[in-house]
User: Fold these one by one.
Assistant:
Number 1:
Amino acid sequence: MLSLGAGAADGRILAMFYAGDNPTAVAIAQFITVFGNAPVSVLFATLGAAILLVMKHPRRGFALLAVVFGGRLLVSAQKYSILRLRPEIEAHLVPVSNPSFPSGHAANSMILWVALALILFGDTRFRNVALAIGLSIAVLVGLSRLVLGVHWPSDVVGGWAFGALWVLIALPVAERLFVPKR
């Protein structure tokens, strides 16, 4: 992505989203970004697995945990392999300490919320609504990272793309491994 010229547009797009001078936008973005934080991902993946256990689907719970935690590990590996610097903007509006690409919040929220939607509601009439909600959360989390000035737009797009691809590949594999055929 970066080799295709995304870096040139990154600064201009980031400047459109960055809200350093808008306390209301910053407060909203700080709230939204929490839904992509590591502790929140762990909490909701664990809650999802617990719900599946109570619903007598423990193997689906294991599949959910495998997809979420496997994706988190791969995102970290990418960050420390690529080592892209974060934007040098006036001020990052939340603390950050790791490399920029891909956005872990964008990737992890895509993985968590889409996997939860598909595993918990995949066989129900609520699947499309749950999937739309999961995708919306992931999009909002990614955009919040731009508003807070902690990622380049290409970091966020890369995170979303990896997260979606990971769910498309890993979820069917995990379900084959953990969920018995009927």
Number 2:
Amino acid sequence: MTLTDPAAEHEMRHAGDGAAALALHRLDRRDLATLAWRAAAVALRPLAAQERFSSRAELTLPEADREPHRTAFVVARGAAAVGYGVLDAVGYLDQLTDRPREAALLRAFYIDHAQQRRGYGRAAVRLLPDLVREVVPAARWLYLTVNEKNPAAVRAYAAAGLEDVGRYLGGSHGPQRVMRMAVR
């Protein structure tokens, strides 16, 4: 979905990855631009086979709104929403690290099915440290879990700078590899 007013952009996190300049926009504000980004996020869809791993914004955005420790965001290329995710300051971080108060969790992250294979996911992940520092000021690390049945995501996260910590969690769809990146 494309927004008609790119001048309303209120986040200045940009990354170039090839021809794509991306920005991350928080979805926890109530101004008109954010309301438009929220509508755009809900219209995004992962590939059908990926949905079991990431869910969809129409389901996870209301959850983020209810939980004060979660901050949803949209990945934008210019005035177009291309991806979505949620940062969580609590989640199941206590299962991932001995220092959960110094970490944030990336969850429900995906790039719209029509926008995949363009480097947007990798570029968006590289932008996350700034957003993590803003919404979880004590965080030193960004963690995520990625399903072993999703090797494309494992490769994309590694290419974006996340490291495999050598631990696995169980999951409803199989083993979850634990990955992290420094945000400070």
Number 3:
Amino acid sequence: MKTIKLLATAIVVTLGIGTAKAQSSSDLEFGIKAGVNFSTLKTGLNAVSDKSGKIGFNAGIFARTGSTLFFQPELNYVTFSDKYRFNSGAYEAKFRQINLPLLVGYKLLNTADFNVRLAAGPDLSYNLKKPIAPGGFKYQDFTAGGLVDAGVDVGNLTFDARYSLGLSKFNKQLGQKANIFSLGVGFKFQ
């Protein structure tokens, strides 16, 4: 329940700042992006062992409004997977998601053709495809996390490194949370 309240507060603050920036600024950019994901499913259970994340990918669209302080909502298709052992069985959890990060950021260096930026915000995910969990356990349809992003824009190209920390559990019985590190490149239309 604490996670849901924290996430709801973060979403309201993020949307409020984004709306205020959109109304006070005519700077609006749209873009496309793609990248690779490196994932781990964290768990607190000793019965889950030999965890090894695998490489996945992401692709999506984004909008960015604001100058130095900006709001950046995104809509992404994300894949990631993880192999693990539970009791005596081996499992591979493969996920396909629609992902909605809502980022508020600040450009540390902001020129016409180059900027360095930091951003953070809630990261909401809906599972399109869920793996079969061991022992009749169930993976959740919806999960939430927190995301931090560091990026550089060179002309119309964008380069990002980000980390998504799972705040809600993918699998409540196994206590699994997804933590994903991503590297990406994009192109923005101004």
